[in-house]
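To whoever is covering the structure queue this week,

Two jobs came back overnight. Logging them here so there's a record in the thread.

Job A:
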Amino acid sequence: MSKLTEIRWHGRGGQGAVTSAEVMGLSAIEEGKFAQAFPSFGPERRGAPVLAFNRISDSEHIRMRSAVTQPDIVVVLDPGLLGIIDVTRGLKEGGVLIINSSKSLLDIKSEFEGPWTLAVVDATAIAMEVLKIPIVNTAMLGAMVKVTGVVKLESLAEPLGERFGKLAEKNIAACRRAYDEVSIAAQGAVSQRPEKTFGEVTWPSWQELLPGGVVTDAGNARSYRTGDWRSDRPIWDHDRCIKCGVCMLFCPEGCVEQNEQGYFEANYYYCKGCGICARECWTQAITMVEEAKA
């Protein structure tokens, strides 16, 4: 009987989750297997949550075309998603959960241990050192191959070469390094985990849609914690800030406000980390800091 492996990738727009699924599918085909790779988009913008899927079969054509709801493998590219999305939803008992995080395996295990194999790799640090940008998809490919063995590491080389061209060598290096550095915990004994609440969507009433209400106010998408799309956040240096308000003027989300001391700060509930305020600040009082390190 043919073995079918289903994979779900969790990431944000711009992190390469869709490319990861594509490269994984091509690598499987390279080995003579049958494979699918396809994305599922919400808002099509950088930083928005993105899903991508793979199905890989050893010897039979794959006729299903639906999203993967009961994956054998879940790969999380952005640790910021862990608090807003149930990444383990539908993960099969005996499956694999692989997380990009700077936390130790022990710390991650305390929250995400379950009836699956858990693995952690600091793919962001690897990407910054090898690629000089926080694009973690190729590093996560290496970690996933090490943990699951769904394809051979060598099978990634040709698809990565075709996809990245002159940058292929660096991406292959990131892939190999994550392959070597990923930490793996044995399958947990926890069969029932406490249900997590990820927030309820509350829609505005029709009165709030009138002029002066939620539609015309800053942060009007009140149903959504839109700041969760952020991968970087602005930090103000009060020693440099002269309270000119240029950052507030240029903020496209209208989420920069003055505090009681007259200094400006972002409402991180809505700030998407676009960096416009930092670029426009002529005193260089604003620095963009990686969200995981803020």
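Job B:
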Amino acid sequence: MNITLEAVTKRFGTITAVDTVSLAIGNGELFFMVGPSGCGKTTILRIMAGFCAPDSGQVLFDGTRINERPPHARNTGMVFQNYALWPHLTVAGNVAFGLTVPGRNLPGKERRERVQRMLQAVRMEEFAERKPNQLSGGQQQRVALARALVIEPACLLLDEPLSNLDAQLRLEMRVEIRRLVKRIGITAVYVTHDQEEALSMADRCAILRNGCVEQIGTPQDIYQRPVNRFVADFIGGTNLVRGVIRSTDQHDVRIETPIGEWRVNASSGTFQTGQSVVLSARQEAVRVPPPPDQTTNVFSGTLTETLFFGDHVEYRLAMPDGTEIKALSYAPTRMKPPSAEAGFWIDPSNVAILPDT
């Protein structure tokens, strides 16, 4: 199913939850809507599902307007944040529920066969006779996913389905959900505020703020080429430093900042001398200590924190003007103690020049 939103707006009283949002989601795409709490992502999902009507704009499924179509007639399946399983039904009963409603009531044998196939797909067939309160959080999540998929919808809608799981289980379920969605070939729209989920699972993402879409692109595009400082700061850790462009020579841009002159290899964009900008340098673009063969973009700061994460160490450095710079060091041979002076290098090819807005 192809899903299109055309200038969709939704207000709740004086609050504009969704502000003229336009999206185009392709058939079979795993599309993420990402943003902080209150940005409008769940409202958009509910508009797609038919639980919430837009005040203006159009929702199109495969080119057909479905604004007035009720939820049960949209051929969508939904996985809710709290799973919403029936406590009095078994696992098999929960999965079969959507196949017993008017208009989709299948004969008993066909219904049992379809439920069995779906339980096998989510690896829950041995738990068919258990009740939801006898399952772990991850198992309940699988049942909710199976219940949404057993009706064979054209589109799967997921509203922060992993937010109630522990960290290790979230990692496992990311793989499970993407594997299942891609194997079935279904269009899926996934809402989350977890940037790691979006980066690791999505085909494309929409980053939202205050009911508006800030950027749409692949996870790699959004991470490496954010359009503004909000996107750069929200998706992945980054260092944001204001500066003024002093010169441009083809793709070599020199920017004066409070911590010294930066040189940036800008592969795209038009920049003017004297222009105020914001530089975004991802933590992995900052090397501590600097490589011995580098002489530009080399600075020095006071180490305030050293955080150990197993496979890498995060350094936090204070600059004389008060700017904090974060750096990642993978497999360091020796961790630096706090309060030490530390030199660092910023990779000029891994810095984004953003508008100062």
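Note for Job B: The chain has a mean pLDDT of 91.

Please reply-all if you pick these up so we don't duplicate work.
Q.
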